[in-house]
Write a structure and sequence with these properties.
This protein has helices spanning 40-48, 50-55, 72-79, and strands spanning 11-19, 25-32, 37-38, 62-65. The protein is an alpha+beta fold and 80 residues long. The termini are far apart. The relative contact order is 0.22.
Length: 80
């Protein structure tokens, strides 16, 4: 069982995905599947970052913001 198994089927309408250490980032819908991530944001990011991913043997750190329209201070304010 992997990290995403219990989250499969959840969709998020607007996220920001970025590949740490690069300038690659994409914003848009995201779908969590039983195998990982899918949807426009994930597919566009993997397409535009393909060369960087290949150079790093397809290893990297993916950063996910589920509230990309809010600044850090606003998120912290919501959580208080």
């Amino acid at each position: 069982k992997n990290l995403f198994s219990d989250l499969a089927g959840i969709s998020l309408s607007q996220v920001l995905l970025s590949l740490q250490g690069t300038r690659h980032k994409q914003q848009g819908p995201l779908l969590l599947t039983h195998n990982g991530l899918s949807g426009p944001a994930a597919l566009r990011l993997s397409a535009f970052a393909a060369r960087d991913l290949a150079q790093n043997q397809y290893c990297g750190t993916l950063c996910l913001s589920t509230l990309p329209h809010l600044k850090n201070a606003a998120v912290l304010n919501l959580l208080q």
